[in-house]
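Predict fold of Large ribosomal subunit protein uL10; 178 aa.
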Amino acid sequence: MSDYVTKINQNKKEAVSAIKDSFSEVKDFIFTDYRGLSVDQITTLRAKLREVHAEYHVVKNNYAKIAFKDLEYPLVDEYLVGPTAIALARDESGPVAKALMELTKDWPLQVKGGIINGSVFDAVQVDAYSKLPGRLELLASLMGTMNAPLQNFVYALNGVTTKLVRTVQAVADQKAQG
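Predicted 3D structure, encoded as tokens:
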């Protein structure tokens, strides 16, 4: 008996390779079901995601599964079922999740789950993640907290000098009157 050999189509290999190339440049992915969206809505969605440095691609599930496996990402086969589009977060993923979750309120877009910082998130976790403050907001809050003691010290010093100037002025006014 001869051995069974699977013949791999070159076009499929190139398609998987292209997906792997685009996935290798990204660390966070959010999987969505895009059924029911019009062309205009998808165009608007892509424009909103570009504003937060992300891309939105419709992918063939089997190709994406192979690409994720080859790139050694966690197993996400449960999210790669049915019509799937993936938001690729090139920068921070919080604003991407926030933009997608805002659109799910008005459109028939459904978030399935995602890979964020190497961990698999389900739809509920992606929703919770979208409500967290972003990196820049956290840094601004930290800087405000760090500046508060210094600002209070400056205000205290300013108060002492102001009080001294007022006292000296009052003494000068009393001597001018008397």
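The chain has a mean pLDDT of 86.
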